[in-house]
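Raw record, unedited: Mu homology domain-containing protein
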Amino acid sequence: AFFIFNQKGEVLISRLYRTDFKRSIADVFRIQVVSNPDVRSPIITLGSTSFFHVRVNNLYVVAVTKTNANAALVFEFCYRFINICKSYFGKVDEESIKNNFVVVYELVDEINDFGYPQNSEIDTLKTYITTESVVSATQAPETSSRITAQATGATSWRRSGDDVKYKKNEAFVDVVEVVNWMGSAKGTTLRADVDGHIQMRAYLSGTPECKFGLNDKLVIDRGAAAGGSDAVELDDCQFHQCVRLNDFDADRSISFIPPDGEFELMKYRATSNIKLPIKVIPTVTEIGTSKVSYDITIKTTFSPKLSATNIVVRIPTPLNTTDVDVGSVGTGKAKYVPGENVVVWKIPRLQGGQECSISAMAQLTSTTTRQVWARPPIDIDFQVLMFTASGLIVRFLKVFEKSNYHSIKWVRYLTKANGGYQVRVSQTFLPHPAMK
């Protein structure tokens, strides 16, 4: 069974694929999950029935099964459905589902047959499920036959070569990494990992054969081979269905016939040999019970030819802070945000190999005893172009097509941090204010 609930527990979309389910199963999810604020797990099993749910904006996307289903497959289906809706409607919320419920039902029935996921390629679906009913009703017979051949053929993700034509043949490859790091106050790494994906936009005529290679020293399973200090070690990889995995296992090259337009070619995760682009050196001192002194320095560790942009440093302050006097700011601007109990330091750009500092003094409400402070970590957001924290690089990118046309290839790297790059604060306490 498949459902979409709003945040009140009302059913917006309902489809029962098997006869062993009744419509009342939706009431069970409403009572046990939507109305229960203590539920944290995305999988709830009640008796012989398992509920898999994904939250997106103000909606619950729910799949229900009574069999021992593959959980990864069920969640992949849910996220695929969300991405399809985003492609069709621009966003996924209660309003878009209600305004397009006919198309949503068409999509649900097309990508799921008797409870088994079927074709979920967005480009293929858009050829015969459209938001304009007149267009789909007036398709020529030869067009319908081509759609059938694409949906059931060896390359269901791409139309036949004669249907794809471009004046300028281009391929764009974006290697995007989100780096997560937790550091101690002394600078040692407590945890570091990278979530990366390779996004591709292919505007290529015909049916091209694409091939690009990754690092020579690329280790996927650390238990199988030792990579060394300069090797790129990936814990796991996931590829688009168009990739031929035999070539990748042999020489770390990726061969595929790409879908037309934008798609995610590969996802990966790394936890070893992570290159940290920014180093943080915090010094936070509690002075008596009335003040907290801050001296924060950040250093960029990458090449001077590169630069970090949109740097935002969030420095936490005690809950009983009355005001913060920001002293010297080496680069950028800083201000105290009372509603969030943080000092926000924004730096538009910082070149590689540079450092900058900030000093501030927080004034606290007068107390006779020292207030216990949880000391949340300092959080940093940033972006660095043409840099990868995992060390992953694209060695080459080639396009082969029977007409032998010239193609233009572009490769871009982007490493960013968004809420997961943090450093803990040391506990330094001066019992009495310094005397002049």
